[in-house]
Design brief:
The structure is a single chain. This protein is of the alpha+beta class. The protein has two domains: 180 residues, Trna Endonuclease, Chain: A, domain 1; 160 residues, ph1033 like fold (Roll), CATH 3.10.590. The strands form four sheets. Strands 3, 4, 5, 6, 7, 8 and 9 form a seven-stranded mixed sheet that branches. Strands 10, 11, 12, 13, 14, 17 and 18 form a seven-stranded mixed sheet that branches. It starts with 7 loop residues before the first strand and ends with a helix.
Length: 374
């Protein structure tokens, strides 16, 4: 259904703000470049008016922490259906780009800066050129959407084409104009769709094998030793990192990789995602206390504990087998992804799981035991 915004002045006699309009959508494009958080504070703009050479120019291009490219198109004077069709045309060109092509786009946009270096600075993790542009999203920025276009977008999403609409509206005030925004779909849904669908040079897909991949970033923010000791995984610092934890439910099996080390554990989920302020763990006497009082080896984004968007979130896990970071399992060709949780459909994931089942002997013993139970 069409998305509409209304803003009211707070008071005994509330008054609605009148809707206005930007002088041009070029101004909106300028605003997004100056403040990318208008779209997402977890994306980095890497290109503007990118010349495809065959089908026109892409308004804006961004990259997510996992190397997913985000193609951003403003509606401008086109009808909503026209802009969706144009974006799909651009996407067919975008998916063929390799890491060198993307680095060149960024260099042209920034006057010669190095993408790998700036990616590391911005996201705090190295750029993996092998997974850069392994998937992409399409984002249409528009002030309105007709019902026909909404049906097209729903149809594409149902078929694993990661596309979303960001609506914006402008309101006039005595102090100047205000800009509001709303997404057609939860951005996490689009993120998940992109992370589970291979594109470009890696079109191979196979049915999901039911096994979840988890990326657990050991370091100053979270500790793998404490995750093992207390039975959990976690993610936070932004909805991009914590939102995919909602994919997990009780009895799901997860294979955990610590980026920079390798695979370190396999476990069974025993509960839903819980915010850091509500998560409880036992102290030395067995008394249940707030997790942030118990956990001492990392920060777990304590500074964001009161912010639902950036807070750390925990998922309880029964570990079936784990190893220390110094014995992490990493072999050539094993699957990797920066999303906290994903459901991979690339052939490499099934092969990775088969190899891990052999590499974790306690897991194999657990399977053998449970299979003989009445």
């Amino acid at each position: 259904m069409p998305v509409e915004h209304s803003i009211w002045r707070v008071g005994d006699q509330p008054q609605p703000l009148s809707q206005g309009a930007l002088p041009s959508e070029l101004q909106l494009e300028n605003m997004i470049v100056a403040a990318p958080e208008i779209l997402s504070d977890e994306w980095k703009i890497i290109g503007r008016q990118v010349n495809t050479g065959i089908c026109g120019r892409i308004d804006l291009l961004a990259v997510a922490p996992d190397g997913t490219l985000i193609l951003i198109e403003l509606k401008r004077a086109r009808t909503p259906r026209e802009v969706v069709g144009q974006a799909l045309d651009y996407a067919s060109w975008l998916e063929q780009l390799d890491a060198t092509d993307v680095a060149r786009i960024y260099s042209n946009f920034t006057g010669g800066r190095d993408l790998a270096y700036d990616f590391q600075v911005h996201f705090g993790t190295p750029l993996d050129e092998d997974t850069l542009n392994e998937s992409h999203q399409i984002v249409i920025v528009a002030s309105s959407l007709d019902a026909s276009t909404e049906r097209v977008v729903d149809y594409l999403n149902a078929r694993d084409i990661a596309i979303n609409i960001l609506f914006f509206q402008v309101f006039d005030t005595d102090q100047g104009q205000l800009l509001s925004r709303a997404w057609l779909l939860d951005p996490v849904e689009t993120q998940v769709a992109a992370s589970t669908t291979s594109t470009g040079r890696r079109r191979e897909r196979e049915p999901w094998n039911g096994e979840f991949y988890v990326s657990y970033g050991h370091g100053s923010t979270r500790s793998w030793d404490e995750a093992v000791r207390y039975g959990f995984i976690c993610g936070g610092g932004g909805s991009w990192y914590s939102g995919t934890l909602n994919l997990l439910h009780s009895d799901d099996r997860i294979w955990v990789k610590a980026p920079g080390y390798g695979f370190v554990g396999v476990g069974r989920v025993t509960g839903e995602r819980i915010a850091a302020t509500d998560y409880r763990l036992p102290d030395a006497s067995g008394e249940m206390k707030p997790a942030l009082e118990i956990l001492k080896e990392a920060s777990y984004h304590r500074e964001f504990a009161g912010d639902p968007a950036k807070s750390e979130y925990f998922v309880p896990v029964e570990w079936l087998d784990t190893v220390g970071l110094d014995h992490a399992i990493q072999q050539a060709g094993m699957f990797g992804n920066q999303n906290t949780v994903c459901r991979p459909t690339t052939p490499g994931w099934s092969e990775t799981v088969d190899r891990l089942k052999q590499a974790f002997p306690n897991f194999s013993a657990w399977i053998a035991t449970t299979s003989t139970l009445p």
